[in-house]
Amino acid sequence: MSEFTVTGQWKARDGWQAFEKEIDAENEDVAREHVLAEFGSKHGLKRTQVDIEGVDA
Predict the structure, then answer these.
(1) pTM of the entire structure?
(2) What is the CATH number of the domain that holds 43?
(3) SS3 at position 5
(4) Keywords in UniProt for this one (predicted)?
């Protein structure tokens, strides 16, 4: 497994908030899915409320 850095922004109450997460995953798609699932479970956001700008190894 590799470590990926996922950057983007999510819709908060007062506008868009930037984020940067480091995720251990098999590939970029799995890292992207993990971030979307985490924001959904922790913040109650839908996938359309999270904008992933980039995934870097």
Answers:
(1) 0.88
(2) 3.10.20.10
(3) strand
(4) Ribonucleoprotein, Ribosomal protein, RNA-binding, rRNA-binding
